[in-house]
Amino acid sequence: MKKPDLSSLVPAGVSGRREILWTLAGLCLSAVVGVLAFLFKLWYVVDLAQDWLEEGAPRAIVPPFREVLSGTLFCFLLVGAAMAGLLIYHIDLHYRGSRSIYLMRRLRHWWELPLRCAALPLAGLLCSALAWGLTQLVLFWLYIALTPQIHLGDLYRDGFLTALLRGGFLC
Amino acid sequence: MLTLQHVRKTYNYTHPALQGVDLTIGPGEIVGLFGENGAGKSTLMKCVLGLVRYDGTITLDGEPVTRKNIERFSFATCEHSFFPRLTPQAHREFYAAHFPHFRHKRFEALMDFFQLPPHRPAGKMSTGQQNQLEVILALSQGADYILMDEPFAGNDIFNREDFYKVLLGILEPEETVLLSTHLIEEVERFIGRAVLLQKGRVVGDRTAAALEEEGKTLVQYIKETYGYRGDRVLRALDQLSGEEEQP
């Protein structure tokens, strides 16, 4: 399969492929860290609930999904911030080593410069948001699958939509 | 026809770089733009290209310079406007993609003339080679108006002299060159007109033919216009030697 030509979407001389690979690596790492952190928190609260039951408590329910999720997806925020940094880096490249900004501003199409500076950072930001949402779905499934039914409250779904809409790491 | 009317530019609201420049440059002219550092040569070129904001009017064949006609200008600057990570060959592809009148044959001929490595990134070339690449790209873009701002600062004299000869040979009649340089003697035989700037104003404008009629060299004309005091060196030396003799 022919590889897509990304050269018109990045500043001249920059490897778009490499930037995409780094972004994907960052997203994968964020997802892995998020899942591990979530599992650790879930294991802790389930273990605590089991202890309470063993100690004679009539009912022991794990906190709602939103609370367990809280803070575990922080790495996605870092990837988003890195995209802002990437945008600044792309702009700065046109002033570094030469003033290639002069050439870019002499091109017929005004959008050439903003497109090359912002295309990958914006795409990266969009992918970060999608990956963050997908990771939350996976984590919610893990929350339901790994928590014994006895420890799931009636409102165990409480907070999922809130978490999804407000951002798990912000809750 | 490139026309500048009452062009003014002030940096930081206080430092006037251009103070009402009026200038007309017709097709096919080779114009030398002279002036001391800070006279406004670079600023004038940047105003023409719309790289800085200015007051006044700049038109090309009666039309304001916009994205529609900007490709009729090319620009070689001592600050360099190439992409440091791209090789000359990659620059050729970039220019060909963005400038429909790119002159491939001229690019090849000039690359051969300067013997530039086609596959070395521009950022890894020597300063002299970088200047040469900058000039090659400006000349090959296929522009009607070629603006060159101190293009050979840092190049050896042999390369410069040979280049001017080549340039005269390759320029087509409708191609216009506006060249800013301090190397007055070197370009004297090359330019057809000299425009002198001082403190942001045009203080002199003569064609080579007019200077010839007046029996003046370009250097003489420039010295006259700027009020160059030829005795200042002797006076300074006299003062200094007198100072040393004093106890």
Summarize the structure in words.
The complex is a heterodimer of chains A (171) and B (247). With 171 residues, chain A is an all-alpha fold. Helix content of chain A is 65%, strand content 0%. In chain A, α1 packs antiparallel against α3 and α1 packs parallel to α5 (112-146). The longest helix of chain A is centred in the first third of the chain and has 39 residues, at 16-54. Chain B is an alpha/beta fold. In chain B, 37% of the residues lie in helices and 25% in strands. Chain B is built from nine helices and ten strands. In chain B, α5 links the parallel β7 and β8 (176-180).
CATH class of chain B: Alpha Beta
Q: Please state the overall shape of chain B, judged from the principal axes of the Cα atoms.
A: globular
What about the largest sheet of chain A? none
Largest interface: A-B, 19 and 26 residues
Beta-strand level of the residues of chain A, as a percent range? under 5%
Order of helices and strands of chain A: HHHHHH
**Cα gyration radius of chain B (Å):** 20 Å
Query: Alpha-carbon distance between the termini of chain A?
Result: 43 Å
pLDDT averaged over residues of chain B: 90
| Contiguous runs where pLDDT drops below 50 for at least 5 residues of chain B | none
Secondary structure class of chain A reads mainly alpha
Tally of domains of chain B: 1
Number of domains of chain A: 1
Q: How does the helix and strand content of chain B classify structurally?
A: alpha/beta
Give the distance, in angstroms, between the N- and C-terminal Cα atoms of chain B.
64 Å
CATH architecture assignment name of chain B: 3-Layer(aba) Sandwich
Count the E strands of chain B. Answer: 10
Classified in CATH, the superfamily of chain B is P-loop containing nucleotide triphosphate hydrolases
Q: Helical segment tally of chain B?
A: 9
Elements of chain B, N to C (H/E): EEEHEEEHHHEHEHEEHHH
Task: Count up the helices of chain A.
Answer: 6
